[in-house]
Design goal:
Helices cover about 30% and strands about 10% of the residues. The protein is an alpha/beta fold and about 325 residues long. It has one domain: Rossmann fold (3-Layer(aba) Sandwich), CATH 3.40.50. Helix 7 links the parallel strand 6 and strand 7.
Length: about 325
Amino acid sequence: MTATDSWAAAGEPAGEIRDWLEGVFQGKDETVDPEEGIGNSSGTQGENEVSSTGSTEETVSSEGMGDTEETGDTEETGNTEGTGDTDGSGLSQEGTQEASASEGENPEGTEAAEETQESGGETEPFADVTYRNPEDVVYTTVEDDYFSDAVFIGDSRMVGMHDYGGMEDISTFYVSKGLTIFKIFTAEIADAPDGGKITVEQALTENRFAKIYLEVGINEMGTGDLERFLNTYQDVVDHLQELQPDAIIYLQAIMKVTTERSNKGDYINNQGIEDRNVGIAAIADNVKTYYLDVNPLVVDEDGGLNPDYTYDGVHLKGKHVVIWKDFLKEHAVVLD
C-alpha cells in the first residue's frame, strides 16, 4: 500500500505532520532509544496487570478502574532488515536465463491453478487483496460469543473492558495499567500453565486466536514523538501478524480525554490523540487489520470525552464501558 492509499483511507492530518508520515508508510526506519522514557509511576511494569484468566491485581472502585495512566516505559520492538539483489532487478542472472528459456511454455502447475479458479476455489476471502478502502468494509453485529476466540491487549482502559465489559470469562485479556506500545511483547502479564506469568510474546507463540483487539496509546503521549510511536506501532502490528497469521487484528483508536483534562497544558491532549489516531488508521489495510474508533460515541459537543462518562477525565466509568463493548459488537468482521 502506498502513502497515497493511506491518506485516502485515513484522511489528511494536520499540515506539519503530513510530510514525515508519508515517509513512515513508505518504509522509513526510526531508531528508538530504549533508555528514553518517562517511566512507570509504580516502578514496576507488571503491576496492576490482568491475567488471561480474568483475575485482576488492581483494586477498582465501582466508578472506575484505576488512576490516570500518564506514564510508561519505552522499548524498541526491533527494526526489520531488508535484502536485495545486486543488479536491482529482483532476479539473479541464472533466474533470468531460466525465465527466458521457459517463455512460450505452459509452466507446470498452471492447469491445477486454472482448475482451482473454475471450481470456485479453495482460497481464503481477499487472498489476493492487500488493501481495501475503509468504506468497502462490511461490518456485522455479533453476540458475545464472537469474542470467545479473541485476545484483548491493552492498557488500563482495556482493564476497564475486562472488569466491566462482562467478557472476563469469555475472552482472553493481556492487559495492564501502564502498558505501552513499546512494552507489549516483553510485558509479563499473561498467565503461564504453572500459575506464574509469561510475556505476551511467549503467550502469543503458545496460543492461537482468531481476533486480536489492540488498544494502547494514552501512556505514550509523554514519551518520544509521534513518528517514533507510529513506527513502533507498525512494527508491533507486523509482528502480531507473524505470531498470529490467521487472526483478524482490530486497531482501536486512542480514546479522547475531557476538554478540561486536555487543556491542562501537559502532554495528554486531544490534538496529540487525534494526530496519533490518523496514523493508526493509515496502518490498517482493511483486509486483515481494521481501524475502529469509538470516539464519536463518547465525546461531547466540544470534541472531548463526555465528562458524564468518566470519573477522572481519562477513563470510562464502569457503567459506561457498555458503550464501547456494544460498538465492538456492532463492528465485527466475519470472513466466510
